[in-house]
Amino acid sequence: MTYIFQDWAANKGNLKGRLVMVLFRLARPASINKFFRILWLPYLAFYKVFVEWILGIELPHWTSVGSGLVLGHGQALVVNGCSVIGSNCFIRHSTTLGNIRKPDGSYSGSPIIGDNVEIGSNVCIIGEVRVGNNVRIGAGSVVVKDVPDNAVVVGNPARVVKFLEPVDATNKPVAPVQSIAAPGKEVSAVDA
Question: Where are the coiled-coil regions (predicted)?
């Protein structure tokens, strides 16, 4: 229940974001067990029709989402239900978090997004990708490889262009900037 209030506060001034997150949190109990799924069936039908079909946001009720998720502009958002989204993340419009269909017909794992991640518009995060904590992903990026903590990534495919100053849970700096890429020089991502 506290997640509802944290999401509400995080989406201040964003009525659509507030509405979607409240509806999402109210649908979550259906993920707990079969009894709740049956009890919540009419609500889940309403959630699917209203949030997905009318508002254009595919955020399945069983998706693991931390507190304080902000949905900037809240449209054309597609999240695979097996994705994991950490706390205090900001996801802009036209973003996809999905898996990949392999040549053998099976599917890859889904993205795992850390805490305090800001995702620009028109971003695709595809496959079994881990995005670290305190990461910024630039608009139009295609992320197909792991992203380390405190990184800024841009491009297709996404590349690390610099590292941010690490922060703690209260967003206060804990150490000086680790490194910054020289202009035109690519910094390779490290395994998370």
Answer: none
